[in-house]
Design goal:
277 residues; TIM Barrel; elongated; single chain
Length: 277
């Protein structure tokens, strides 16, 4: 599971944003001693992710709250399924409702999308990976959701690995110069990836000694040519304009990894509601 300190800081910021001076509606209407029970209900089919985090939201507001998971992260649910229950101070349930749902719905949407795409290539030796196209402050959660949906994680941050992109190449002067500079600077434990757009660039990256070669926005014919040229001498990653409709065709070119920004940057949240009973 994710580091509790990171989760607690994220939840604290979210609650501060949602009620900087309290919840004037709930505080006016609900007695402090009131206790309620609520159910989280899936309003559409999908894969659940983020239940522990949603439960933690209420713990911040009521230390005696009881959050019970009916399903687990990674489970598939259908419309109408009860996925969790929470019992505690009514004020705490109402104040935490939106923050808990925002997190749970978004992470479940990412897990569902990832699972849908992974299912298209489950019989092939290829990994479906995310990117850094995440909501600021939410990356660690969103990448957790990708893993929950069956995908894999690309680098978490700019500190995790060398990825030489088109602008780096332009600034450095060439792929060769960029790779040489990276090798002279970073530890030997860090892999070096190069983004390429043409077969000539693939050849240059290969000669320069790149550990991973990204095929950026290449058509399937060019990808097959690149995979044949690389011939297992580096990992091959495909990226750019990959969707549910063409992910299997891309995988069949022989690439090792397919990175897909839409897993996180424009995903639809899974519809989940919280109802007090």
């Amino acid at each position: 599971m994710i580091n509790d300190i990171i989760i607690d800081n994220l939840i604290k910021r979210a609650l501060e944003e949602d009620m900087p001076f309290g919840d004037i509606t709930t505080d006016a209407l609900i007695d402090e001693q009131s206790i309620s029970r609520a159910e989280f209900i899936a309003k559409e089919a999908g894969v659940i992710a983020g239940l522990d985090i949603a439960g933690r939201v209420f713990e911040h507001l009521d230390g005696r709250v009881i959050f019970t998971k009916i399903v687990r992260d990674g489970d598939k649910v259908n419309k109408g399924d009860i996925i969790a229950e929470v019992e505690g101070q009514t004020r705490a349930l109402l104040k935490g409702e939106r923050t808990a749902l925002n997190i749970l719905q978004r992470l479940s949407g990412i897990a569902s999308k990832t699972n849908e795409i992974c299912s298209k290539v489950k019989d092939l030796s290829v990994s479906i990976a995310d990117t850094r196209k995440t909501i600021p402050g939410m990356r660690i959660l969103e990448k957790y959701a990708v893993k929950t949906g069956g995908g894999s994680n690309h680098r978490y941050s700019l500190s995790d690995g060398v990825l030489i992109k088109d602008n780096h190449i332009a600034a450095a002067g060439s792929i060769k110069k960029a790779v040489e500079a990276a090798k002279a600077s970073v530890p030997h434990t860090i892999k070096i990836e190069v983004e390429t757009e043409t077969i000539n660039q693939v050849q240059e990256a290969l000669v320069a000694g790149a550990d991973i070669i990204m095929l950026d926005n290449m058509n399937e014919e060019k990808m097959r040519e690149a995979v044949k040229l690389i011939n297992k001498r580096a990992l091959v990653e495909a990226s750019g304009n990959v969707s549910l409709d063409n992910v299997r065709q891309v995988a069949l070119t022989g690439v090792d990894i397919i990175s897909i920004g839409t897993l996180t940057h424009s995903v639809k949240a899974l519809d989940i509601s919280m109802k007090i009973r």
